Amino acid sequence: MAWAATHKVALGSIAFAVFWILAVFPAVPFLPIGRTAGSLLGAALMVVFQVISPNQAFDAIDLPILGLLFGTMVVSVYLERADLFKYLGSGLSWRSRGPKDLLCRICVLSALSSALFTNDTTCVIFTEFVLRLCKQHRVPVLPYLMALATSSNIGSAATAIGNPQNLVIAVESKISFFKFLVGVLPAMALGIFVNTVLLLLFYWKSLKPLPKIDDRHAIAAGDVESGGGGSGGGQLDKPAAMIQMPEVGGAAPKVAELPEDDHDREHDHVSLVRVQPLAASPSSYQESGKTIAAADAEKTEETEHDPPNWLHSPAVIDDLLRLESRRSSRSSSSFRRSRSTRSHVPEEFDEEAGALPPPPSSPPLKTTRASRLRRKVWKVCVYLVTLAMLAALLYGLNLSWTALTAAVVLIVLDFSDAGPCLDQVSYSLLVFFSGMFVTVDGFNRTGAPGQLWKAVEPHARIDSVSGIALLSLVVVLLSNVASNVPTVLLLGSRVAASAAATSGASVTRAWLVLAWVSTVAGNLTLVGSAANLIVSEQARRAESDKFNLSFWKHLAFGVPSTFIVIAVGLPLIQG
């Protein structure tokens, strides 16, 4: 495409620059409006600057891609409600044989899950679970978060519904779901294997259990003074989940840990305090800077059944309230079941005689069994509808309408108000895509991308190894500078046209090479893929066990992994 008028080139470039800055850095100080609003701003500027007309802007919005995105997101919501991801997560820790085995499982499971349910969905669901798993197995978090992010990106390259850029390529190229899968699957399988080996080698020394008691939580005996002192004497800063036990029978103060997670929320009886063995020490302990005797003979009978003083600590009370709030978040069916059971217990009964309350009557039990059966049948139906959707995609039916039809069937089968489920759809992502379509189309009309590709195209044809290498390098750089979806929108049709004009080159293979490289390129930097940002933000905002996956921590492994995985996978791309 030739250059447009000078003022359109300048104004269109400014609008695209605004979009790019807000897409890559959504919280810039001078305009902290986020990615979605930045996308709309870029689209509005393209129309206001008259780079494109309003009608051209509406025509630029690709409804089939938005429909496919919406349909797959709705299906993912119902799969999450049907506990599919909980079952997949349970498979991670089942009979695990150590930290290295656990890392391999995360790589394989996240790759398979992202190929079927998109990489973004996989990272949203599994990040917090991986954090809890690392705490349970006492292993460092970084290798496992990197395994989740990088494997999700690589695995998503295998299918047309694995990630947004693949959706764009599948719709634009009209490649069938089955042909897409067969063309990229060998490269994906080898890429996951190579990436897993690289993770093991890179983090080998870190892949071992941490000590049971962290040095940060160890309390030296000398820190607790037995004599009187000021109000600050002997005071220790303890984490919220740590409490200091009083002296019992001449034992030193010890630290007991409250369980951070009630993994099995179906059990009402949770052990609140795990008491460590007590060693011998002086028979007094520090409290508010004063020495208090360990026992008072005159008050032994009065206080024999009273709770210990440490149980009234504000920190302990906070932990008990937190655990109680977690247990209260059980499913509504369990709540109704427990409440119906309590409703049949009389308020008074002969406690001295040992009389037990009468058992609940049979109707509530029948209702509970019926509700359980209905839920099991509903879950089976959700899985069958999802399998039918995948079969239809493999058969070659329309991608968008297949996903939308599956979503509508699941809504009907749920037989309840669909509002809560539809509220979980990421509408901001759909709005972001709409604005991006307009912005990228306007930038294309300036002629700048066409002129850039015109200079590179003679050296980046896919009929030679050097051409594929140069094309891959350009796509990797643009995917991390302008994001992978805009890169595909900018280069997709041009790469296909170049392949069509090259003797012996396959247009289908050109599209699949673009899909493979643009997807794996997301592993290079933290901002290269939305899945990376999801993992980072989820880990940073976790309720417990927060972890900061920084740009540099990701880059250290991302650089070698990206280029090696792309290189080993390219020869296996079939078209």
The rounded distance between the terminal residues' Cα atoms is 27 Å
Strands in their spatial order, largest beta sheet = 1-2
Share of helix, binned: 55-70%
Q: What is the strand content?
A: under 5%
Shape verdict:
globular
Number of helices: 22
Mean pLDDT: 76
How many E-type strands?
4
Q: Main beta sheet: strand number and arrangement?
A: 2 strands, antiparallel
Q: What's the gyration radius in Å?
A: 30 Å
Flag low-confidence runs: 213-316, 329-356
Structural class of the helices, strands and pairings?
mainly alpha
Series of H and E elements: HHHHHHHHHHEEEEHHHHHHHHHHHH
Write a concise keyword list for the protein shown above.
single chain; about 575 residues; mainly alpha; two-stranded antiparallel ribbon; 4 strands
